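Reposting from the mailing list since nobody answered there.

I have sequence plus structure tokens for a pair of proteins and want to know whether others read the tokens the same way I do. The first protein:
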Amino acid sequence: MFETLKKAPVDKIFALLGEYRADPRDDKLDLGIGVFKDPSGNTPVMAAVKKAEQRIFDAQTTKTYVGVSGNRGFCDAIVDLVFGDAIDPDRVASVQAPGGTGALWVIIQLLNRARPGAKVWMSDPSWPNHWPMMELAGLSPQTYPYF
């Protein structure tokens, strides 16, 4: 069933992580993936994150399903943070998505419904999952130089 699937190309960022791990120097720092690691290689939870999580936990009153668009309070706060008074909030639609790739997939699906086969421009370099996601949805990915 899966014999026709092709192996995805190596992600350049994760390839960089492999090079980091292979580097024998003791004075190196891993700044490649976006997660802070201490000198022992641990990824500690920052005090500010623990404090924010505790505030959420203390204010939580239910575990009920929040609906397909996510936590409405969160979405409204993000709209206010991004747009402030510059635009009427009734002119903005927002949804909460499961991370960056999940958010990208939601917008890709919306774009393809609004403009099937549309050209979508992205920087080069970009993340290696962006191009195939756009193609899979039927969009036409194009690139422009990042530098």
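The second protein, same order (residues first, tokens after):
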Amino acid sequence: MKRRYWMVLTFLLVYLVWRVLQPQLMQAMASAHLLGRIVISAHTQGEKLVALTFDDGPDPRFTPQILDILQQYRVPATFFVIGQAAQDHRDLLEREIAEGHEIANHTFSHQDMVAMNEQQIALEIDMTNSLLERITGKVPDYFRPPRGRFDWRLIEACELRGLRIVLWTVGIENHTTRTPEAMADRVVAKVYPGAIILGHDGRLNRIKTVQALPLIITRLRAQGYRFVTLSQLLDTEKEIRNGEELWR
């Protein structure tokens, strides 16, 4: 009984430390590249850049509303699209491209990639890559697995295709935040230079994300942040690294 008590106490202590230090740890891991091939943020040397990303679209219920807000505030974003949804709503995908947003791969059918065999993994990636290449004229550079679940088979499959796996620093949607205001508060509190913000524009009801988005944009801009696409964010990191190498 005593041993069980200490085990529970130790677990709670470790969990609390992780919750308190998570933003700093995430930033340190990303900056030190301890995560290797998985991107969670960019090292921007303190330059206040942030990337907005959206998963699970295009969806006619919410994607147009999000695009309207991005257009109103002149904010670029990166959309990780589901191949099946892009196929069904090509007009929305074309609008995303026409308005200057970046398109990335979020599988074809939004299934758990870890539960798949190698052939299924390849099919999910390749079907969406081919579809997006036909519509956009280029193969996407980035891939995000559903729910952020991945293993070494997925990493190797993406590397073979020249795709970088991109996760996120902070999500707009969260089980503990019930209102758009609370969602915005949480994002603003957890963002740091080089952060990647995850939102969703499809599948479930995303009306609170739509309502939180203007709050997030205006509050981060008030703090001096500039919104860029994922490629622009990671290109900035590349330029900084090259500068450091030349300087050394």
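Reply #1 (J.P.):
I read it the same way you do. Residues 1-36 form one domain.
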